[in-house]
Amino acid sequence: MGIDNWFELSQKKAYDLKQANHWFVSPMIGHSFVGKKWNFNIEAKVIAPNLSNEKLVVDYQTPFRNKGAFGIYLGYTRKF
Questions:
Q1: How is the chain split into domains, by residue range?
Q2: How far apart are the first and last CA of the chain?
Q3: 43, 34 in Cβ contact below 8 A?
């Protein structure tokens, strides 16, 4: 479990629009499976659950109806 942060320092976003939000929070939960020669990670994350995802270019899937975006992330590391 944890929280990830994104701080947007730019005053403008795409198409020269004003950047209204400068702090994006992303709560997450995950697990790491550790072996002698490998690590496998799985994580579920909700990106910006407090911000509307309506009127965006991408249609985001989220458990919070019209807020944030939901993702499942997989990672694999091989040790040498």
A1: 2-78
A2: 28
A3: no
CA 14, CA 62: separation in Å to the nearest integer? 23
Neighbour order of strands in the sheet with 67-78: 2-7, 23-34, 38-52, 67-78
pLDDT in tens, 13-62: 888 888 888 898 999 999 999 999 999 999 999 888 888 888 776 777 67
Q: With H, G, I as helix, E, B as strand and everything else as coil, classify residue 73.
A: strand
pTM of the entire predicted model: 0.69
Q: Is 15 helix (H, G, I), strand (E, B) or coil?
A: helix
Question: 20, 75, 74: which is closest to 48 by C-alpha?
Answer: 20
Measure the CA angle with vertex 25, ends 34 and 38; round to 5°. 10
